[in-house]
Design goal:
It is a single chain. This protein is α/β, with parallel strands linked by helices. It has one domain: P-loop containing nucleotide triphosphate hydrolases (Rossmann fold, 3-Layer(aba) Sandwich). 47% of the residues lie in helices and 12% in strands. It has helices at 3-6, 23-34, 42-51, 55-59, 68-76, 95-109, 122-125, 141-152, 156-178, 199-212; strands at 12-17, 38-39, 115-118, 132-138, 190-193, 221-222, 226-227. It has a five-stranded parallel sheet with strand order 2-3-1-4-5, covered by helices on one side. A two-stranded antiparallel sheet has the order 6-7. The protein is globular. The protein starts with a helix and ends with a strand.
């Protein structure tokens, strides 16, 4: 951030995350500490409402590139058939249409600040905003596999394949729709390894960064008497 940007209040936080690194948990805790709304899983419902689709249909495409269905079916459909149901081809919407609607939903949400947005390339959508803080959560693969295996009550071997494909799909999503590498260091202001730093401590770090900035009233007048 430039010196001028460092003097502005933070009113928007984006949370990018590796699968299993705890992005949703961090966003919820930061939202609680700051009393800010969080846009995370509700994105699916808002996109479905915008496109007049059911939530389940949109969820199958959420944050995935167009080739997801074929890949995920080959790995999981036999192992855990109760977890996945696939629409008939005539009912399958366009990945690009869902991605475009997702971007509109996120941009609409950012019209009412403050807000925390999880995933979906928000760090790219708001890359030029001086009032945004971009956070990236990572963790070692074995830590993430263990977390997801416990959450899903599934064996680690199966979960390892899920984690690898989810990471790949999120990277491909950001590359396809924002022409950026989701792992690019300069996309983020803060990168946290939740394999070493607990979610609660990470949330405290983020909230302190926000609270250390001037309030909107304090930042209305810049040095020299000019209004922002």
């Amino acid at each position: 951030m430039s010196r001028d940007e460092q003097g502005r209040p933070i009113r928007l936080i984006t949370v990018s995350r590796e699968f299993g690194a705890g992005g949703s948990e961090l966003a919820r805790e930061v939202g609680r500490l700051l009393d800010w709304p969080v846009l995370d899983h509700d994105i699916v419902h808002r996109v479905a409402d915008r496109l007049r689709l059911d939530d389940g249909t949109v969820e199958r495409f959420d944050e995935h590139p167009p080739s997801l269905l074929a890949r995920i079916a080959s790995v999981l459909i036999v192992l855990t058939p109760e977890m996945y149901s696939f629409a008939a081809p005539i009912d399958v919407p366009s990945h690009d249409a869902i991605a475009a609607a997702t971007r509109h939903v996120i941009e609409d949400a950012a019209a009412s600040l403050p807000v925390i947005v999880v995933g979906h390339g928000a760090q790219c959508i708001f890359a030029g905003r001086p009032d945004a803080l971009h956070v990236r959560l990572v963790a070692p693969p074995d830590v993430r596999v263990r977390r997801i295996a416990q959450r899903m009550n599934t064996d680690p071997a199966t979960v390892s394949a899920i984690v690898q494909r989810a990471d790949h799909d999120r990277q491909a999503y950001v590359q396809r729709y924002f022409h950026s590498d989701v792992r690019g260091e300069l996309l983020y202001d803060l990168r946290i390894n939740t394999g070493r730093i607990a979610i609660g401590d990470a949330a405290a770090i983020v909230s302190r960064l926000v609270e250390s900035r001037p309030t909107g009233d304090d930042a209305d007048t810049l040095p020299g008497g000019h209004s922002s």
